[in-house]
Write a structure and sequence with these properties.
Layout: H1 3-19, E1 24-25, H2 26-30, H3 39-49, E2 55-60, E3 63-68, H4 88-100, E4 103-104, H5 105-112, H6 118-127, E5 130-135, E6 143-147, H7 149-154, H8 166-171, H9 180-186, H10 193-199, H11 213-222
Antiparallel strand pairs: 1-3, 2-3, 4-6, 5-6
Helix pairs in contact: 1-3, 4-6
Amino acid sequence: MDGRERVDGLRLLEALLFASSEPLDEESIKARLPEETDLEDLLSELADKYADRGVNLVHVGGKWAFRTAPDVAPRLKIETTVSRRLSRAAVETLAIIAYHQPVTRAEIEEIRGVGQSRGTLDMLLEAGWIKPGRRRRTPGRPVTWVTTDAFLEHFGLPGLDALPGVDELKAAGLLDTRPAIGLLRERGELTPASEEEDADGAEEEESLDASDLQSNLLEAEEN
């Protein structure tokens, strides 16, 4: 193979490897090159040529392919934020926690009137909008749930006192209209956040009555 043929063979080999969507074995490569081509010699030369570049020619699993050089690979990572649509159950659960925190899973289920899927709380926890609170001083010591600062930041609320009235959320269909909340409070099983925090000797919580979460919760459904 003379000089010109070698250069042409090297260029063809390079083009084959770049154009292929998957690694190529030597048999597949030979089928595209002239019969007299010394494939091993060309592969070695091409590997040396790309040794110090952003991509390297590598031999993996009996096949050849170009791969990103290990030292630059970390700089090519791209992180993207994937928006997930909140289910109605998640929106209702978030609203209940926001208004009646600290609230247990059992209380959320009774307010909504349906069993609570574990995935619903997990989704809100993963989003950083809720977190476990202190355990109730009742049999079983159930965990309570409260909202986070990230919840306030995401919905553009300066504090919990900026939440809209419960009637507004009921009118928007974001809260169950059945009287379960009132029944729980009459039985002493659901205590407003500020009352429970005072009883436990913790810092006083801000009151939960006010004006602007409705549109933000609806916006969350759309996102």
